Amino acid sequence: MQRNKGRVFSRTGTIVVTLGLMSGSMAVAQDKPTSEKPSDIPPSRVIAGRVLHAPPKLDAADARKSVNAFITWAGESVVEEQNDARRALVSAAKNPDLIKAFMEEILAAQKSGDTSRALVGLGLLGEMRTYDGAKFLVEFVRRPLPTKGTVIEGELQEEAQQARLQAKAIAGVAYLRDPEFDREVMNQAGNHPSVIVRAEAISAFLWNRGDSLEARKELEPFVRKEERRFLDRVRRVSGEGAESFNRKLTAYLKAHPEVQAPNPERKEPRPPEEKPNTFDVTPPKF
Description:
Blueprint: H1 43-48, H2 63-76, H3 82-92, H4 96-112, H5 115-128, H6 131-141, E1 151-152, E2 155-156, H7 157-176, H8 179-191, H9 195-207, H10 213-219, H11 229-232, H12 242-255
Antiparallel strand pairs: 1-2
Helix pairs in contact: 2-4, 2-5, 3-5, 4-5, 5-7, 6-7, 7-8, 7-9, 8-9
């Protein structure tokens, strides 16, 4: 993963779960398609056909089944249903059986390779803001990263996939806003083996303290010297216009020119005797 050190993308608002807007870069579905022919129904019609504001009940009497249904609903929900989910989670947070069921569903989703579902489950557990939930998230973040698997463009895919899940988990730990767990977030900001998690720990710690100067000063000693630029990363807040955000982005790039892509090199024109986009043999039929 050393190759991608400079390419770390983090959510601009670490509120742990954004219903209906789960990050596509982190959510990589592993299930094989069950149909050989794509659906003729556009996603807009599927969403329009859903009954809004009707989350499944989180029932402690059948905790695992109800949590399973709730995670599925949350993964399909839209922004307008955020408050519906939060109200349900506030109530569920009072029941240890439901909290345990969320943990079990997260681990089951990860084991089956359903990264998208695991991300949603981690987000929901973090949103519940419980001590037991946070302990689970800390243990999840501390799990060793895979060392074997498929390498694509210098990146071990299994390692990156688990790091994305752990980044979601550390965001949930930070969202609890508890001194005991804040120390864990700061420690992971400097010591976690994946830059994906370190960057998210930095972002989550700062966001949960309003990106204040005091929070930055508290966190800075834990951050690696070569990663101090993550402390300055800009985020576009709700309601902010493009002009304001672009000013912040310009200032950030001026302060950290090393993150900018190099200017493209002009390619020399081809000699006239060359014939681009032609072949000297007949291509095979497909």
